[in-house]
Each structure stands twice: as C-alpha cells, then as structure tokens.
Amino acid sequence: MTSAPHDSSHTHVTGESEFIDDRPFVAGELVVGIVCSQVARGKLVQIDLKKALAVPGVVGAYTAKDLSENYWGTIFQDQPIFAAEDINYFGEPLCALACETPEALRKARRLVEVKVTPLVPILSIAEARKKMSFIAPPRVIQKGNVEDALKNAPHRIKGKIEMAGQEHFYLESQAAIAYPGEAGQIAIHSSTQHPTEIQHVVAHALGLSYSDVVCIVKRMGGAFGGKESQGVPFAVIAALIAKRTGRAARVVITKDEDMVITGKRNPFENDYEVGFDNDGRILGLKVNMFSDSGAYADLSTAIMERAMLHCDNAYFIPHIKIEGLICRTNFSPTTAFRGFGGPKGVATIENILEEIAEYLKKDALDIRELNCYQGTNNVTPYGQTITQEIFPRLFKQLRKTSNYDQRKKEVADFNRVSKTHVRGLSMTAVKFGISFTTRFLNQGSALVNLHLDGTVQVSTGATEMGQGVNTKISTIVAEVFAIPQNAVFVMPTSTEKIHNTSPTAASSGSDINGSAAQLAAETIKRRLQLVADKLFNTPKELRGRKPAVMGLAEEFNIVESNSADHIEFENEFVFNRSNPGDRVPLKEVIEAAYLNRISLGAHGYYRYPGIHYNKETGQGNPFFYFTNGVGASEVSIDRFTGEVKVLRTDILMDLGRPINHGVDYGQTTGAFIQGLGWVTTEKLYYNKDGSLLTRSPSTYKIPSVQDIPRIFNIDFLINDENRKNLSGSKAVGEPPLLLAISVWTAIKNALSASARKKPVTIKLPATQEEILMNLY
Ligand code: LUZ
Ligand code: MOS
Predict the structure, then answer these.
(1) pLDDT tens figures, 687-718
(2) Distance between CA 555 and CA 549 in Å, rounded?
(3) One-character DSSP codes across 287-336
(4) N or C: which end of the chain has fewer CB within 10 A?
(5) Residues spanned by CATH 3.30.365.10 within the chain?
(6) What is the CATH number of domain 268-437+614-775?
(7) What distance in angstroms lies between residue 656's CA and the mean position of ligand 2's atoms?
(8) What would the CATH number be for the domain defined by 443-501+509-607?
(9) 273 carries an active-site annotation
C-alpha cells in the first residue's frame, strides 16, 4: 500500500492539466452550438435554418437528416441524436450550428426558427403510471412466500419513500473535439467514461466502420456516471461536422446548457410493506419500485436492476418480493449516477428499519444488528451467498468507536430540554455489489510497453475522471517491476490501443483495468526473468557482449511458457535468489532482452471470474464480491427554520487492503459528501412546462464547506481475508456515497422526536423546506 499522490495533483495545481476545452485551437477549427427544444413534448413541424445560415461566419447547420443513423442508446436504441419528429423533453437537441467564431454562433442561434405543435407532457411518476407509460415490462426478484409471511407477521408497516433525482455537477461540462483525418477517418477527444461507445455510435451515425474512428480520453473534469452514456450526442455532433466540413469541430456546452440537456439520477418512488416480530426481526418484505427514466431508456433498466439487487442491503430477509417498473416521462433521460440504483434500494430498507424501530420504540441500531447477515442467515434474495460475516463486526466496532450508546442518551437528553433545536443520531450500512450486472462488461485489457531506459507506458480501457485510477494502475505496475512509481506513465485511453473498453463505471475501473495491466506487466517480467537467468549463467566478463552489435551467432532463446521464479526484482536490480550478492541493474536486463530480440511489450486481459445472473428469474451470483461499510451521523435541526447541520459522522469501511490509502480516503470523503447533497440540499425544481429552474450553482445547492460534518472520522477496517481481487483491494468509488443515507435517517430520527404527525414520512432529499413542513 502506498499513499503516493494522485498523478494529476501537481498539474491540477499548476493549471497544466489538460481538459477538452484546454486543447489549443487548430487551424480552421469550428465552434459548435446546439439548439434545443423549448417544449417538453411536441411534434416537430419544421426547423427553418435560412436566416441562421445567412449570418457571416456560419459554416453549416445540421439536423437529424444529416445522420446515417440518428438513433442510439446503450441498451435500447430509442434516443435520437437530434429530435426528428417527436420532441420528448425540454432541452432535447434539435440542430447544431458550426461557426467560425463564438460571435457568429451567438447571432445565428437566435435566428433558428423552430415550429412545434406542443403536446401535454408527462411530468411525474404518478402520471406515467396512470397513462401506462413504461420503458420495459416489470422485473421481479423473489424468495420464499411473502404473502404468507406478511399475513402471519405480528406487526406490519406499509409506507412509501420518494427519492428525487440529482444533478452530477461535474466541473467540466460535456465536451468533445473531432479531428478529420484521411479518407473519412475521425479522431475524437471526448470527455467520456466510455470511449468504445463513442467510437461505435459515431461510426453508426456517420456510416463509418469502427476502425475509421478513434476515441481518445486524457481525463475528465469529473463524471460521476453522467458521462457513462451521455457524452455520446456531443461527440457525434462534433464528428458529423468534422466529417462534413473537413475541419476540426469543437462542442463544449455551458454549465446551464449541460444542466438542462443532460440526464440526472433516476428519481424513485417505492411502496413497501414489511412484516416483523416483537424483536424487530424482518419476516417478510414487499417492495414495488417505480423509477423515472425520463424521455428515453438510457441505462434505466440496469439502474432498476441494481436498485432491486440492493433492497436487502446488509440485512437478511427470509421472504421477499421486489418488483421494479420504469416510468417514461418527459424529463431529460435519467442516467447513471455514482451508486447507480444502489442508493435507491438501500435508502428504502434503511428507512424501513428506522420505522420498525420507531414503531417498536426500540433502538434502530439494535434492530439493524439483529437483522444483518450472519450465521446461516446469509443468502440474498437473488440467491448469492454472503461468504464473509462482516456486518456484525462492522456494527459492533463503529458502535464502540463512535460512542453511539452514550451519544444516543445525550441526544435524548438534549431533545427533552432544547427549545431551539432537535437532534437525531443514526447508523446505516452499505453492502455494494461489485460487478456490472451486465456480465459482458466485466472484462478489460491493457497494453504495457517497457522502454529501454526502464520507464513504462501503460494503456488500459480505464478513463481517469479524478478518481485516481491512473495512480492505482501505476502503483500496481511499478510493484511488478520493482521500480519507482514515477517510472510508470499511464497514457491517455484510446480505442486504437485498447479494444472494446467497458465504461469506467460500477466502481470497477481499477479492479478490471489494474488487473489487466498487472497481467501484462507480469508477462514481460516473466520474459525478463528468463533473460536474467541466462545472464546469470553467462560468465561475468561476457555478460555485456551484445549479440546484435557483435554479430554473435548465439542469441538467448527463451521459451515463454517457462518461468524462472528464482530470479527476483528489487529496487531496480535483479538477482538470483540463491546468489543475492550478484546483482544486475534491471536496465541491463531490459537491454539484454531487446538485443536478444525478446519482446518488451505485452497485452493483458482480465475478467471477473464466477459471475452469472439470470435477469428473467432474478437469481444468480451477480457480484464478484461486496464492498461493505457502516456510517453513523448525528444531526441538529433548527426548530424555527428547519436548517440542518451535521454535527458528526463516523465511517468505517472494509476496503480490503487499499492500493493507495490517500486515494481511497479521498474517494470515501468525496462520495459521502456527494451522497450528503443527494439526501439533503440538492433539489431539482422544474417549471410547470417541464423546464428546469435550478440550472446553475446559484439555485442548485451542492454541499458547501458549511454543510459537511463538523466532526468527520473515516476509518478503514483491516481486512486481510480479502484475497479475491487485485492486491487484496476492494472497489471504493461508489459504496461510501450510500453511507450518507445515515444523515437522512438521522434527520428522520430527529423529526420523530419532535413532529406531531407520526410516523414521520419525509422525502429524500430532506431539504430545509421539507424538514420545516414536517417539524410541527
Ligand atoms: N453501469 C452499468 C453501472 O452499466 N451497469 C452496472 O451494473 C453499473 N453499476 C454501477 C454503476 N454503473
Ligand atoms: Mo457509474 S453510476 O458511471 O459507475
């Protein structure tokens, strides 16, 4: 484990780090603007471009008619690049203008005349349900006999939890620049988590072969799932214009545009009925989940699947039925967002546990400990067995280190006397399934080139979005060769070096791509060991003789399938374990390999083993492993304003053996705070016409330094049992986000001490307004 700094930390500070719009303009490069729909739903009658095209400096205007294939979609190809006949959301792209200058673009934009026959939009899950507007047939996961379990349960609670969407708020808006090449070829620099999807959709849209298109990603300025699928239209538009004009084309949208056009986290409304005994043990649970996919399918089916697979969270439920239905509305197509469906399943069950505790007047943590996976209560609703009994340990440890029991008493004492504030304390868990639930995405490859000066260039399918995947990969490869980390360079992701990249998503980027890079590096290392073995068997005075230069007849011939494990690498030197005094610099071995015509490059390929999931039956082993954790939060609510402050949060995560402690600490902190925004301040408001009101940081409130926990303790459990994965590490990108649900349940806990109306049902996010409405 290292705590090497993030590979971009220096250049981020100096400003040298290159994002898409930092790329210098090339000669003739065009700036591109997108004209978007100003209605949420309608029939597109006509787009009149004459006046816009007459503006000096306008080079071209492009609509659906200009594309060989206008429809795309990661799962279902139901979304147009440009609306063709039907308009389905406010902000849907209608056409693009390519201009010599931003000034020409500004003028021309206003002169595009769009004729639309407006239709009544669907703007809520409730309306979509009424109008039977769904994306796909319902999906079900079930185990046991839930109807009987509910009927026979001593107690039952029926309820509903509403969870809103969330704007990704990456700092770099969607962006792409396309460069035309010879014979119709295109190179695209895109701010995307999924370069291969960009390559494929651009090829389809322009009638090119996949090999005509190269997509390159240096880094993104944040993504959070918002660039898993939704970088596509911007890249296609840039590529279309580059192909048509033979000039480079730059699409960089503004924050306002981005917030209006692109999709957000799927809102969910879940109905539930739970049966439990006098101790609070869950006997049966029925959940009906309804998500809002917005206008198109995007990733909503996969998101629903993950939501359903996370309804159990850390808790054993003997009889369960989960049903998921995806509602099509007229909002921008909702998409992946850190956690995917996970937070929506986990918030549901954590809310239920909070309600059971309130109903039985028991402590909610006791209820959670009682219900968590343990002993023979270790099979999930989808049939996967939980092999590590980790939750009893996590709950117990954090209960102690966060001083939970004493603080619970203090909170109760405080609430009895305070006339101005009310407090709440709650601990929740996360069990996040690691793997794409779509099995074929769980594969990746890497290319490792070892150079004669002992430095290494690594390319993988992973994209760097700030999460530190490059830093982890360079650590792993440096360890293989026993060289300093700064001798390993992780190169921009490019579809010409790595084929069929999976999106850098599902927290799996380091696992999959780091493992592939490790395998490639090990292949080269094995060759070097064989070369070194020959070297050590060569008399010292002959070792430096160079076959190529000397024209020696004999070359080292190695057999790749052999190994020479007795050759060890240490601190840039190589030695035979049986004679550690005789050391050769690694660089000499590398040179000897080259001069003896032995390859210093290798390809590595990795896939998660042993995963399968039947989407029809809802049964299988969808996850390679789980990343687990617990978090306890204490909040204070102002009784007069509803303002909430997080007084303290304690987090305990099992991250196996982190590859880079600093990076994992940063991911845990960032994910929690992003989750905090989702459960408290980040609320999207829409006008009655379906247009977004909150389209800038002045109206959409992401957490500020004032909102983060006053006391914030993050700790990692040392888990040496985890040997499954890359260096014993565990995926970290998404799981800690779900621990912010503890803030929301703490708010619910506080309100249950003060509200007149009981039980307390609050929406998520629990904004100041939402809290105030529920205080008295
Ligand atoms: N993307 C995806 C994801 O396509 N499938 C998944 O299971 C997933 N999970 C989390 C985040 N992105
Ligand atoms: Mo994602 S929600 O792009 O891992």
Answers:
(1) 999 999 999 999 999 999 999 999 999 999 97
(2) 12
(3) EEEEEEEETS-TTHHHHHHHHHHTSSTTB--SEEEEEEEEEE-SSSPPB-
(4) C
(5) 9-121+168-261, 268-437+614-775, 443-501+509-607
(6) 3.30.365.10
(7) 21
(8) 3.30.365.10
(9) no
| pTM greater than the 0.70 cutoff | yes
Chain segment 503-554, per-residue pLDDT in tens: 999 999 999 999 999 999 999 999 999 999 999 988 887 777 666 566 665 7
* Mean pLDDT (the chain, rounded): 96
Ligand 2: centre distance to CA 503 (Å): 8
Class of domain 9-121+168-261: alpha beta
The ligand that comes nearest to the alpha carbon of residue 441 is: 1
Q: Which of 369, 682, 734, 770 is catalytic?
A: 734
- 742-758 pLDDT, tens digit per residue, is 999 999 999 998 877 77
Query: What is the 192 CA–ligand 1 centroid distance (Å)?
Result: 15
Name the residue with the closest Cα to ligand 2, atom 3.
225
- What are the tens digits of pLDDT across the range 718-744? 776 767 888 889 999 999 999 999 999
* Ligand approaching nearest to the C-alpha of 231: 2
**Two structure tokens written together for 280:** 């609070």
Ligand 1 pocket: which of 306, 344, 611, 737 to mutate (most atoms within 8 A of CB): 306
Q: What is the mean pLDDT of residues 135-159?
A: 97
Q: Is 298 near ligand 2, meaning CB less than 6 Å away?
A: no
Tell me, using a 6 A CB cutoff, whether residue 613 lines ligand 2: no
Judge residue 759's burial from the number of C-beta atoms within 10 Å of its C-beta, 0-12 exposed, 13-18 middle, 19 or more buried: middle
